[in-house]
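Following up on my earlier thread - several people asked me to post the actual chain instead of describing it. Fair enough. Here it is, all 100 residues.
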Amino acid sequence: MKASIAIQVLPAAENENELIRIVDEVIAYIKSSGLHCHVGPFETTVEGEDYNQLMDIVKECQHVAIRAGAKSVSAYVRVVYKPEGELLTIDRKITKHAEA
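Reply from S.P.:
Thanks for posting it. Predicted structure:
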């Protein structure tokens, strides 16, 4: 892997159920990218070889939330980019903590 992003999308929603529905649509979009991802309670992490593809995913997450009905959306994004060599993968970071 050359790059990894962690994105937390916070749509403006009328209530918690609507918030969850919109976030679920964003997560479905991320999963549809076909890239390896991990959904956590606060953010979704995605990793891939193409930095630009990951940045496009970050951008599109905002559009997905708005199309799903959010009046506005905030996002918190963390990026790790390592053009040479390999970065620490999602699996390597969390496998030892997975429940049996």
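The chain has one domain: 3-97. That should answer part of your original question.
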